[in-house]
Design a protein that fits this description.
Layout: H1 7-11, E1 28-30, E2 34-35, E3 39-40, E4 47-49, E5 55-62, E6 65-72, E7 80-83, E8 96-99, E9 106-109, E10 115-117, E11 127-130, E12 136-139, E13 145-148, E14 162-164, E15 167-172, E16 180-187, E17 193-197, E18 208-209, E19 220-223, E20 229-232, E21 238-241
Parallel strand pairs: 1-4
Antiparallel strand pairs: 2-11, 3-8, 4-5, 5-6, 6-7, 8-9, 9-10, 11-12, 12-13, 14-19, 15-16, 16-17, 17-18, 19-20, 20-21
Bound molecules: 2-acetamido-2-deoxy-beta-D-glucopyranose (NAG) (3 copies).
């Protein structure tokens, strides 16, 4: 098997960050409280920064167009960690992302006059916030979270983010194309964490597993601020530490 085919590192970027905060680009706005009526466009104010400036939510360049997501703004290489509607083609520079003022929703407006919901919410949002954890959050008027990007993971797990069973991370097609790729990591109801190829999510085709079974149906994959990756069982006990584990029959890229 070629190095390029090594599954964990290449296709599923589970990122661990210990990053310093650097200067902020001009096209971004430091605003952790995003009020109704706020908007972004790809070429003017293109994103809302978290307080520390490390993360941003908004437009990022994808191919010849722009997609909406969360990315690391505090480093030169703007690493995308979450994408909204990842399998929808990028939009042109004329699009607008708007936290609408009336029936408060987060919508992407394109010149074809089509409004696409970025967050699927049943309640009216009151304000939004780009948190320093990388979580983009919508709140109701009571300050309760009604939607958060952490609950809709794409291909990344960020420190403090939890992947509860049953949930998956799907690899991206490539480093520059965040649409769904060909592998996924599933936190299963039985407590096992398994890597499968899309289309064949059966044990015979699983190419890695944590071997943590029979934990009840509320197990979860956790990544803490120290970069420890571990599985908790339904009652909150560590059933496996993954960070120190090496894959036996491969080069030890992650140990
Ligand atoms: C954006 O809108 C302007 C003015 O309506 C138009 O001339 C231009 O072609 C549009 N750009 C794209 C990429 O669609
Ligand atoms: C979780 O692990 C602890 C410690 O091993 C165990 O006592 C508990 O029963 C487990 N919980 C479930 C739901 O399996
Ligand atoms: C996992 O690591 C933590 C911290 O190093 C340790 O306290 C715990 O006992 C470990 N659990 C297992 C199941 O290995």
């Amino acid at each position: 098997m070629q190095r390029d085919h090594f599954p964990l590192m290449h296709y599923l970027t589970i990122l661990f960050f210990v990053l310093s905060i650097s200067s902020l680009a001009t096209a971004q706005q430091t605003q952790s409280y995003i009020s109704r009526g706020s908007s972004l466009t790809p070429t003017k104010t293109s994103s809302w920064l978290s307080k520390s400036g490390l993360y941003a939510f908004g437009f990022y360049q994808r191919g010849n167009g722009y997609s909406v997501g969360v990315f690391l703004a505090g480093i030169p290489e703007k690493t995308v960690v979450w994408t909204a509607n990842r399998n929808v083609p990028p939009v042109s520079g004329n699009a607008t992302l708007l936290l609408t003022d009336a029936d408060v929703r987060l919508v992407l407006q394109t010149e074809q006059d089509q409004d696409t919901d970025i967050a699927d919410i049943s309640q009216t949002a009151s304000y939004a916030s780009m948190l320093d954890t990388g979580n983009f959050v919508l709140y109701n008027s009571d300050g309760d979270i009604i939607w958060q990007s952490f609950a809709y993971p794409t291909d990344n797990l960020l420190p403090t983010q939890i992947l509860p069973a049953p949930n998956e991370l799907f690899s991206s097609l490539s480093l520059t194309d965040q649409s769904t790729g060909i592998f996924f990591l599933r936190m299963q109801r039985d407590g096992n964490l398994v890597l499968y190829p899309i289309g064949n999510p059966i044990p015979e085709y699983a190419y890695w597993q944590s071997e943590t079974y029979d934990m009840g149906d509320k197990g979860s994959l956790n990544l803490d601020l120290d970069g420890r990756l571990y599985i908790l069982n339904a009652t909150g006990f560590t059933s496996k530490n993954l960070t120190h584990e090496c894959l036996e029959d491969r080069e030890p890229y992650i140990c």
